[in-house]
Specification:
The structure holds two protein chains of two kinds. Chain A is of the alpha/beta class. Chain A has 18 helices and 15 strands. Chain A is 36% helix and 13% strand. In chain A, a hairpin with a 6-residue loop joins strand 10 and strand 11. Chain B contains three helices and two strands, in the order αααββ. Classes of the chains: A alpha/beta, B mainly alpha. At the A-B interface, helix 11, helix 12, helix 13, helix 14 and helix 15 of A face helix 1 and helix 2 of B.
Chain lengths: 533, 106
């Protein structure tokens, strides 16, 4: 039996009931990686040119075969001894290369950390290990997670979308979404700062869950925007996302922003029905609003009609199951999501990036330098790519006294207004009393590689429908709802009040069950159909 | 439209960010920063009353979701040598820092 395309919960069950061993599952996963992944990412390696390069996924920056084998053997030993191997026993997973794992290279997709071996592990990684999961490798991302297409990584070739290898995976957790979609591990750990779990999940046809800020510990993540970063799972089905969240959620003494709020039983929550749930739709999420540089006016562009139709059809299915669909929900400050994100995320990123100096760890320039100052400027100039440079420069511009126009303070106020928008619609005594908001995850499906990269403003607007969630700190869950006429996956997201992950999982699971027999559910990434001949 | 960030501003920013940049890269980065400023300037048009406070966190923290601070106890990391090994230049267990730029005084 080949296990690479099975759900994580099925794999764990097969292992616990001794129908298959964890080592056999690992062998299947390694075989799949060798069939579909092609060249593993390397710093400054050539971009994809050959036929083979252009038709493979390139999700990985490192395959941790030896490490995975030790973990899998340990699980098999526990099973043999009749001990509990954990809820994710033997489940192969990948981690975005922004998570630290003790003894393993952690690069953040950057040359500046290309030789960094982490002396400690992220709390989420420890919790995955305790739950019995087996880490098969680190996967590619935008450099330091800065981007929405995974094209900015220093590790080349760029990761390609398994549904169409000429398209991007989305980002920044692009390697995670691609690996999961291509059966290279049942699960991946990603991070979401402005949409970086949900947008690639929608581009690659997977489930992606951004938990409430503080629901999952950030300890051991290489930091981007410390008030926005949220680790969470990507998976091929809703149940697996619930299983992983169960394993990784909960307070961590090593992260003072991790919440003590009790963790519910997500699997039980997920299986309840959705009758009577109030689910809203908002016009603000069916258009992209931006400030036009020529006319200096706010322009409102409707999103792709096919995406809108797929989301409305999703609402129709949910209504059939007894949910109340509430139309015309106002979220008037949504249009400020990206401008606010430009400010807050850059200011936070610039302070997080100043630690990389070529002195304590990481890359150091090979050129000669006359003093410490020159060591810094040469090392950082050589080893950071354009995205981290842009974010540092903008962060410093916005926060340095001599340039200050009060933008940071304005952004914090705009953030408070976006938070208030959500508080108003979720208020149980308010006018709308919503349990969740249903929206498209992204304004487009996966775009062609190279078509947006280089235009940092246009790229950022790929996050317009996701960024307000991060500003507000609330949870969001993206799930597949169909395909466009180019056979590219479409994702919808449900957003809910603080700590409402159980309800969001329930809505997505209900949709998954009611659409089980829909024709689009049997679509497979062409790269996998080819394997089957 | 005049650029918000002039070449002189950009030079100062690059110095603050400790980045040595080739001219063509600097041109590209400055252009992108100015494009981003067009988007950021929209914030100036938000009608914000003086009562509206800012928030640095979406989620409020209170006694219901916050842990008490940890006790402030120091402990020796067991991986001292592993951590030090990451430094590009070491001497007798110390990280070597190159000369700090300075001017000789008369």
């Amino acid at each position: 039996m080949k296990t690479s395309d099975l759900p994580a919960y099925v794999i764990a069950d097969l292992i616990k009931t001794k129908q298959v061993s964890a080592v056999e599952v690992l062998e299947d996963t390694l075989e799949r990686i060798s069939q579909v992944d092609g060249r593993t990412g390397q710093v400054d390696a050539p971009e994809a040119k050959s036929e083979e390069d252009l038709s493979t996924v390139h999700a990985f920056t490192l395959v941790t075969e030896k490490y995975a084998r030790q973990q899998a053997e340990e699980i098999d030993k526990l099973v043999k001894e009749g001990k509990n191997p954990g809820p994710l026993a033997g489940v192969p997973y990948t981690a975005k290369d922004i998570f630290t794992v003790k003894g393993i290279r952690a690069t953040a997709g950057s040359k500046i950390l290309s030789n960094y071996i982490s002396p400690y592990s992220a709390t989420v990684v420890d919790r995955m290990t305790e739950a019995g999961a087996v880490m098969v490798g680190k996967v590619n991302l935008d450099e330091f997670t800065y981007g929405s297409s995974s094209e900015s990584s220093a590790y080349k070739p760029v990761t390609r979308n398994p549904w169409d290898t000429s398209r991007v995976t989305g980002g920044s957790s692009g390697g995670s979404a691609a690996a999961v979609a291509a059966g290279e591990g049942a699960i991946s750990l990603g991070t979401d700062t402005g949409g970086s779990i949900r947008q690639p999940a929608s581009f690659c046809g997977t489930v992606g869950l951004k938990p409430t800020y503080g629901r999952v510990s950030r300890y051991g993540l290489i930091a981007f925007g410390s008030s926005l970063d949220c680790p969470g799972p990507l998976s091929r089905n809703v149940t697996d996302a619930a299983l992983v969240l169960q394993a990784i959620a909960g307070q961590d003494p090593r992260d003072s922003t991790s919440a003590t709020t009790p963790v519910p039983n997500y699997l039980k929550e997920m299986e309840k029905d959705i009758r009577g749930l109030r689910i809203g739709l908002s016009e603000e999420f069916f258009r992209v609003t931006y400030f036009d540089a020529e006319s200096m006016e706010l322009v409102k562009n409707p999103i792709d009609e096919q995406i809108k139709d797929a989301v409305l059809s999703t609402a129709g299915f949910l209504a059939q199951l007894g949910a109340d669909i509430v139309m015309d929900v106002p979220l008037p400050h949504t249009k400020y999501g990206v401008p606010t994100y430009f400010v807050i995320s850059r200011v936070e990123a610039s302070s997080n990036l100043l630690r990389y100096d070529g002195v304590k760890y990481g890359y150091r320039t090979e050129e000669s330098f006359k003093d410490l100052r020159e060591l810094y400027t040469k090392t950082r100039g050589e080893a950071f790519g354009v995205e981290p440079k842009l974010r540092m420069l903008m962060g410093i511009y916005l926060s340095a006294a001599q340039f200050d126009k009060g933008y940071y303070e304005l952004a914090l106020k705009a953030r408070a207004l976006m938070r208030k928008d959500f508080e108003d619609i979720f208020d149980p005594r308010g006018k709308y009393r919503l349990d969740a908001l249903l929206t498209p995850t992204a304004p487009t499906t996966a775009f062609p590689i190279g078509s947006v990269y280089g235009d940092s403003v246009l790229m950022q607007y790929s996050d317009q429908l996701t960024a307000t969630t991060n500003h507000a700190g609330i949870p969001g869950l993206s799930f597949p709802v169909g395909f466009d006429n180019e056979s590219l996956p479409i994702g919808a997201q449900v957003l809910g009040p603080d700590y409402s992950e159980g309800v969001l999982l329930r809505i997505a699971r209900s949709f998954e069950k009611v659409t089980e027999k829909e024709a689009w559910r049997s679509n497979r990434p062409p790269i996998l159909s080819k394997l089957e001949g | 439209m005049t650029d918000k960030i002039s070449p002189e501003d950009f030079e100062r920013l690059a110095a603050l960010a400790s980045l040595e940049l080739p001219a063509d890269e600097a041109d590209y980065l400055r252009k992108e920063l100015n494009n981003q400023m067009v988007s950021i300037e929209v914030l100036e048009s938000i009608p914000i009353d003086t009562e509206t406070g800012g928030t640095a966190h979406g989620i409020p923290y209170d006694e219901l979701n916050s842990a008490a601070p940890r006790e402030d106890i120091s402990h020796q990391d067991p991986n001292r040598d592993e951590i030090l090994k990451q430094a590009p230049e070491l001497e007798d267990g110390y990280i070597v820092v190159p000369d700090i730029s300075h001017e000789e005084l008369d």
